[in-house]
């Protein structure tokens, strides 16, 4: 999970451990989020995802 490797707080660690347990529901969310981040990276502004982007990603992943 290269994408989640950029996340280092406690919440993302718990999420990684959860994903490592093979939860298909959350793995699907990660793939969707990764695609979203990729599309955002194609936007006009040449900026890398910052803390806010990571927070948004986590919120997306954890949304029920
Ligand atoms: Zn899950």
Beta-strand proportion: under 5%
Enumerate the distinct ligands.
zinc ion
How many domain units? Answer: 1
Radius of gyration: 12 Å
Query: Class by helix and strand content?
Result: mainly alpha
Q: If you had to describe this structure to a student in words, what would you say it looks like?
A:
The chain is an all-alpha fold and 64 residues long. The protein has one domain (4-62). 64% of the residues lie in helices and 0% in strands. It is built from three helices and no strands. α2 (24-41) packs antiparallel against α3. The model has no long low-confidence stretch (mean pLDDT 75). The protein binds zinc ion. The site of zinc ion has 4 residues, from α2.
Please supply descriptive tags for the structure shown above:
single chain; 64 residues; mainly alpha; 64% helix; binds zinc ion
Topology:
Elements: H1 10-20, H2 24-41, H3 51-62
Helix pairs in contact: 2-3
This protein binds zinc ion.
Concise overview:
This protein is mainly alpha-helical.
